[in-house]
Amino acid sequence: MALVIFDYDGVLADTLDDLIRFGQEACNQLGVYHVVTKNDLSNLEVMSFSTYGRACEVPENLLDEFVKISLNLFAEKESPPAIFDGLSEVIKHLSSKHKIAIVTTNSSKNVRAFLTNHGLESLIHAVYGVDTPGSKAQKISMREAFWKNERCL
User: Fold this and answer.
1) How big is the chain by its Cα radius of gyration, in Å?
2) C-alpha distance across the termini of the chain, in Å
3) For 2, 21, 72, 120, which has the most beta carbons within 10 A of its beta carbon?
4) From CA 100, how far away is CA 91, in angstroms rounded?
5) What is the C-alpha separation between 136 and 18, in angstroms, rounded?
6) Are 106 and 74 in contact (CB under 8 A)?
């Protein structure tokens, strides 16, 4: 049995259109005059809502608010994003022999809503979102905790 770790945004969930729309809405609410495009995301070396905000020219003193607004917009969305074609089957197949975790810069709450919507919540062992302390790299390096913990959903 192995541990398989997935990212969420752009890997499991097709969130590109939402990210662009919510990034623009967050900029508008904060009075940041920037037209958000796909390039703001595609040029990121590390995807986090903070680095995304910087790419959208959000001043440092408003980054925390940009992150908060963006995550809230995801949470308030009427339906979770679509799952990429074929990934439900991949998750189902992998979960029959392996533990699966998700490490993301999105909120655990948003990821759980997505998993529930797509009937996958019982197949995922743990979700570590932006609400879990540490960087993505730190969360991934905690992989021993995945083995020791019961389900972390």
Assistant:
1) 16
2) 20
3) 120
4) 8
5) 21
6) yes
Whose structure tokens read 């945004």? 9
- For residue 22, give every residue at least 6 positions away whose Cβ sits within 8 Å of its Cβ, in sequence order, or none: 69, 70, 73, 74
Q: 0.70 exceeded by the pTM?
A: yes
CB 9 within 8 A of CB 19: yes
Amino acid in position 50 = S
If you average pLDDT over every residue of the chain, what do you get?
88
Q: Which two tokens stand for residue 28?
A: 């508008």
Q: Among positive and negative, which fits the CA dihedral 34, 36, 37, 43?
A: positive
Closest alpha carbon to 147 in 129, 130, 126:
126
Strand partners, 82: 14
Distances (CA, A) of 149 to 123, 127, 138, 143: 15, 12, 17, 10
What is the number of residues in the chain?
153
13-14 and 82-83 strand pairing: antiparallel
- Cα(17)–Cα(83) distance, integer angstroms: 13
Question: What distances in angstroms separate CA 102 from CA 76, 89, 148, one per listed residue?
Answer: 21, 16, 16
pLDDT in tens, 34-80: 999 999 988 888 888 899 999 999 999 999 999 999 989 988 888 88
Residue 122 has which token pair?
Answer: 């019982």
Place of tokens 């900029």: 27
